[in-house]
Amino acid sequence: MSKLMTVFTTRREKSRQYKSIPSRVLLYIAWRNFISKKLRSFLTVFGVIIGVSAIFFLLSFGLGVQSLVTNQVVGDKSLKSIDVTSPNSKIIKLNEDTTNKMRTYPHVSKVGVQYSFPGIMSYNGGEVDAVVYGQNQEYQSLSSLALIKGRLLNNVDSHAVLLNTSALKALGIDDPNSALNKVISIDIPLDRVEAKKKQISDKFTIVGIIESGAGSEIFMPSNLFDIAGVPTYSQVKVVMDDTANVATARKQIEASGFQTASLTDTLSEIDNIFRFFNLVLIGFGSIGMIVAVLGMFNTLTISLLERTKEIGLMMALGSRRRDMRKLFIFEAALISFFGAVIGVLIAYIIGKVVNLYINLGAASRGVTQSFELFATPWWSIVTIILATVVVGLLVVYFPARRAERINPIDALRRE
């Protein structure tokens, strides 16, 4: 027993004589080996650069297109708003009582209402059919009306209207500037609803011109329909104080029998589609990355074979097996890190140049708003670099494992 304890103690004391090589020394050795084989290191890093550039370029394109589609769908509309309609207005009425009840729901900040009826507008002896919308101030603020000339409606307006460009052309007015402050006649039949008045018929002043589709549309204050005694709204917008409360409010509203819609549904569908689209793009870009991985594996394996005697000498002088493993891990990390950073930088510059060229072309055709076809959020840059370094560490697993298992005696015998 004492003999075994003596042997164990001796081995433990010998093991304490040798300390691991400091990481900074191993990193320096890895760096010297990296720059000593210039052509081999350049070709290996170049392969990683091509692979990373392809992936990042295609990913930036996918994110840019997703951002453009999302902005086109959402625009200036609030994700906090809920569109409420009635599936059967004769049974479930969307009226003042129900909207007042919605105002009492938790986290509701405001409620906007809208009426919608077919109407006839007249100007200089001509008549044109149009859709007439009666909106209160809250609803108008959420409608994202694209004002071209003039102003929007306010709470003190009583005989002011907005017309879209299609309605102007139907009236024979080509210049939006000349349409402002002109007076038109509007007739809105109300015989299909149980209103106090049979119709709204009066003269209105055009105070603003908007761009809103191909059909003729008129926008006026909702209080005109309130005065006429129209009992139900066509649509209601409920605005929450936070997007996180939209789902709960929708359940409360739907429990009363109404139908709801929200832009969050559309955004979820867009995200699902582009999640698959981005994966496809990354898959195409990964082809170049696979070639780069094979080149990195080949470089590290050749480096191991060339330096077998050197590794054996280092181990004979006291280096530990884990030092040899760390040495190759550092070399792989250097290759993958430099390749990732340079690859991302090249793809980023190319994307910015393409964005600039496209915006200049769009500006020459009258488009004033700038956009990005290639988007590069910070998280995509960090993710690509970290993912490339992780791939490099996975590739070096087998060469590093072989390096730490080298027998120093056999290694020193080799010529």
Walk me through what this model shows.
There is one protein chain. With 415 residues, the protein is α+β, with helices and mostly antiparallel strands. The chain has helices at residues 2-17, 23-36, 38-74, 96-103, 137-142, 165-171, 176-179, 223-228, 246-255, 263-306, 308-316, 321-364, 378-395, 397-404, 408-413, and strands spanning 81-85, 108-123, 126-135, 146-150, 160-164, 183-189, 199-211, 217-221, 235-240, 259-261. Strands 2-3-8-5-7-6 form a six-stranded mixed β-barrel. Residues 1-17 have low confidence and may be disordered.
Beginning-to-end CA distance, first to last residue? 44 Å
Strand content: 15-25%
Helix content: 55-70%
Annotation field: number of helices: 15
Q: How can the largest sheet be summarized?
A: 6 strands, mixed, barrel
Please tell me what the overall shape is.
elongated
Strand order of the largest sheet: 2-3-8-5-7-6
Helices and strands, in order, run as HHHEHEEHEEHHEEEHEHEHHHHHH
Structural class: alpha+beta
Low-confidence stretches: 1-17
Using DSSP, what is the number of strands? 10
The gyration radius over C-alpha positions equals 36 Å
Instruction: Give the averaged pLDDT, no decimals.
Output: 80
Short key terms for the protein model shown above:
415 residues; alpha+beta; six-stranded mixed beta barrel; 15 helices; 10 strands; elongated; disordered N terminus
